[in-house]
Please model this.
Amino acid sequence: MANYNASNTYADEPNGEYRNETTPVGQFPPNAFGLYDMHGNVREWCADTWHDNYDGAPTDGSVWIENGNDNRSPLRGGSWGYNPTYCRSAIRYDYYFRRVNRINNYGFRVACVFGRTL
Model:
């Protein structure tokens, strides 16, 4: 379940509720990894700058800005204003927007990494 424009459908599914705004974190059940709101709600800015593909991407988890920090970033996933087709983390688009753009269905995810315990 995700917050997206549910007045449009994917395949033959029935229409759902179109909320027309963001929803609080945890409004929907977590995915199989225990993560909440991974699809829908807002399109998320990425720290990496735009690249056409992943050839040469860092493998150590660092931010990939080798094309220069031109303040352009891909957005990933769908939002409350978009069709369910875009509710996938693999979707990236709008590479021409700069991070200074403010739009009510753009956002970012705050993440905290904890050390491993055995």
In short: Strands lie at 43-45, 75-76, 92-93, 106-107. The longest strand covers residues 43-45. The chain has no helices and four strands. The chain has a mean pLDDT of 76.
